[in-house]
UniProtKB/TrEMBL annotation:
Protein name, as recorded: Transposon Tn10 TetD protein
Alphabetized SUPFAM superfamilies for the sequence: Homeodomain-like, Probable bacterial effector-binding domain
Xref: InterPro entries: AraC_E-bd, Cass2, Homeodomain-like_sf, HTH_AraC, HTH_AraC-typ_CS, MarA-like, Reg_factor_effector_dom_sf
Segments passing through the bilayer: none
Example GO molecular function: sequence-specific DNA binding
Gene name as annotated: tetD_2
Pfam (any one): HTH_18
Residue ranges that the Swiss-Prot or TrEMBL entry lists as coiled coil: none
Source organism of the structure: Anaerotignum neopropionicum
Domain HTH araC/xylS-type, chain residue ranges per copy: 8-106
UniProt keyword terms in alphabetical order: DNA-binding, Transcription, Transcription regulation
Organism classification: Bacteria, Bacillati, Bacillota, Clostridia, Lachnospirales
Amino acid sequence: MEWIQRLNQAVDYIENNLDRVIHVDEAAKIAACSTFHFQRMFSYIAGVTLGDYIRKRRMTLAAFEMLQGGQKVIDIAVKYGYDSPTAFNRAFQAIHGMAPTAAKNEGVSLTVYPRITFTLSIKGDEAMNFRIETKEGFRIAGYALKEPMTMEDCLEKVPVFWQEVAAKGGIEKVCTLVDGTEPQGILGVSTCDNGEFSGYYIAAATKQPCAEGMEEYFVPQGTWAIFDCVGPMPHAIQSLQQRIITEWLPTSGYEYAAAPDIEVYYEGDQSAANYRSQVWLPIVKKQ
């Protein structure tokens, strides 16, 4: 399938450049999607972030070269993108549990991470309820986390951001902005401008003015696949997002659009088995 082929071609590019500078935007271009969405798709399908995959593959190749001998540690470090032996030693030890020099000893046990190859696996053993809607643009207002972030950064910083906003009473303040504008509820919005991650908002779709400390963002007109989610947070929505990318998207006739990803959280006990939420995936028809 073309979608899977493009992902594997992007992996080819990464593998061919492990000893050079890897430009994520080039890999995304090969995969025919934005940099932000490429990183997101990769992590959901591979089960590991793109940055972590590259680190593990580089440390695998570095270990092989250490075993062969004949090269200085600093030369191998520089080859795989590390400017100092200290940084290389830290990365090597995190993967292999030993210093690079120890890898030269006969009989040592090293950790190998093989190249990833994507294949299409159709499960279909559990239903996904969704609808496709084209929406007029709408304004959101709330609290924003705006800084350059990789997918790894998002996984680490976004949950902390939710905790910080909740701790200062921000969720209650966002709730006061809900005025019937769709989508209703508390929104988690990952914005993507010019193919790059540009911010994460805890917000509401609203026509009301921003309160102090809040920011606004205009979500442009677009088409979304809207999936219903039932189950406790965060596991239920994380599991659904992975299934959307790995099971629904490859055979849907659509692909990721360069528009915001939206999570919709409704009132209720988020730890309950019947808690309801939604995932809005921005899409365009495949050409």
